[in-house]
Amino acid sequence: MSVCVSAIDCVVGSWGPWSSCTSPCGVGSTERSRQVSVPPRNGGTPCPDLKQRRGCFGNNAICSTAKEVAKILPDSFKRNFKDPWRRPHMLIKEEKASYCVHLRVKQASAACKLKLWSAQLVRERLVCAECQSDAMSKSNRCGGDGLQSTRTFWAAASVPGCHGSWIRESSSERCRCPPHSVLFV
């Protein structure tokens, strides 16, 4: 006498939500998964894929900030800096308190060695960059003032070809950088 054993097919639950994009800015991937509710037995249909992955493009709020390039000048420009481009928001003179950002230089191009002030922008040097009222945008911050633990870029406004990257370490409100620092413009 033979015992008839019926086959049990695999049954899976519904897909879970897609994960957040692996890259906060730019191309990355996202995945989702589902669980096995009933495993296959006695030669039943095997389970289908339990994971799905697809490409995504991260466009986090920080991305536009990460793309900004800081334009910097030596602090000797402090005295009566005039906006050479006559930008409309620069004509309304309303003094706002300066703030300081401390940034760790990660890269500097060879052209930076051509001027004394920009030659100090060397790898791993901690730089104090001051954002003064004149250079602030409508949002009361300087363009390219960096992101905590994210590499952003800078260019020396008066030294052609001098540019690099840095990582923001800290910032302080109502502050002035010591002599021989840099200014955002």
Description:
By secondary structure, the protein is mainly beta. The protein has 2 domains: 11-59, Thrombospondin type-1 (TSP1) repeat (TSP-1 type 1 repeat, Single Sheet), CATH 2.20.100; 66-78 and 96-184, no CATH class. 8% of the residues lie in helices and 35% in strands. The protein contains 3 helices and 10 strands; from the N terminus they run E-E-E-E-H-E-H-E-H-E-E-E-E. The strands form 3 sheets. Strands 5-8-9-6-7-10 form a 6-stranded mixed β-barrel. The chain starts with 10 loop residues before the first strand and ends with a strand. The mean pLDDT is 86. Residues 92-178 form the SBSPON-like C-terminal domain. InterPro entries: SBSPO, SBSPON_C, TSP1_rpt, TSP1_rpt_sf, TSP1_spondin_dom.
Write the layout of secondary structure elements.
Layout: E1 11-12, E2 25-33, E3 36-38, E4 51-59, H1 62-67, E5 69-74, H2 88-91, E6 99-108, H3 116-119, E7 126-131, E8 151-156, E9 163-172, E10 182-184
Parallel strand pairs: 5-8, 7-10
Antiparallel strand pairs: 1-3, 2-4, 5-10, 6-7, 6-9, 8-9
Organism: Acanthochromis polyacanthus
InterPro entries: SBSPO, SBSPON_C, TSP1_rpt, TSP1_rpt_sf, TSP1_spondin_dom
Protein name: Somatomedin-B and thrombospondin type-1 domain-containing protein-like
